[in-house]
Amino acid sequence: MDKDTFITVGEECTYEFEEKKSIFIASVFVVTSKEQAQARVDELKQKYYDATHNCYAYVLRDGAYRKFSDDGEPSGTAGMPILNVIERLSLCNTLVVVTRYFGGIKLGAGGLVRAYSTAAAEVLTKAGKSIYVKGSRGTIDVDYDDLGLVERYLNSSGVTVDAKTFGNGVTISVTTNKPWEEIENTVTDICAGGAICELEGNVWVKQSDID
């Protein structure tokens, strides 16, 4: 994969199972920075504030950065097994958090490794895989008379309309993996020069799912 493309999970989801009365809840997220990953971990720690452990692992940008945590479980029995599953699937920009509610029966080191590995593998199987590419985020200002034609073009071109703001005209907020110049030129032609297209920056956009 080049620097403008990566493979991660297809959807953010959860998977839950029970092992010897302990409840394991695995959650998976797409993350593109250390700060975003930590924020997700903190969110789950607040959500599952009464859990015994919230163990996690994540990989950023083709393995350039990786981090894991056993969160109180015996060293090497939780975070590393989760990380191993992520890397075995060749995923990046992927965070898996496995929350455990202790059920009163100890699993032993081997049992913990199996449980955390299973939790990670099952949630990642459920999530599937997708290719993300570097895209653009911007706004398109059009008159009301041109709105219908512009929307039809955006929808037929696979451009995602994130929001619309109505005032003297309409401001359409979009994300796309198409070249911004192509969007700008086409919309300008549709509106006979009466549109304003502003590029706000780059974002990661899902291109397609992988079977």
The secondary structure category is: alpha+beta
Spatial shape: elongated
Q: How much is the radius of gyration in Å?
A: 22 Å
Mean pLDDT: 93
As a percent range, the share of strand residues is 35-45%
Distance between the termini: 17 Å
Percent helix range: 25-40%
Stretches where pLDDT is under 50 for at least 5 consecutive residues are none
Count the E strands. 10
The major beta sheet can be summarized as: 5 strands, antiparallel
Q: Determine the number of helices (DSSP H or I, runs of at least 4 residues).
A: 5
What order do the helices and strands follow? EEEHEEHEHEHEEHE
Main features:
211 residues, 32% helix, alpha+beta, 10 strands, elongated, 5 helices
Structure description:
The protein contains 5 helices and 10 strands. The radius of gyration is 22 Å and the shape is elongated. The chain has 211 residues and is α+β, with helices and mostly antiparallel strands. Helix 2 packs parallel to helix 3 (108-127). Strands 1, 7, 8, 9 and 10 form a 5-stranded antiparallel sheet that branches. A 5-stranded antiparallel sheet has the order 2-3-6-4-5, with helices on both faces.
Structure, briefly:
This protein has 211 residues and is α+β, with helices and mostly antiparallel strands.
Ordered list of secondary-structure elements with their pairings:
Blueprint: E1 5-9, E2 14-19, E3 22-30, H1 34-47, E4 53-60, E5 65-69, H2 79-88, E6 94-101, H3 108-127, E7 129-142, H4 144-156, E8 160-166, E9 170-176, H5 180-190, E10 196-210
Antiparallel strand pairs: 1-7, 2-3, 3-6, 4-5, 4-6, 7-9, 7-10, 8-9
Helix pairs in contact: 2-3
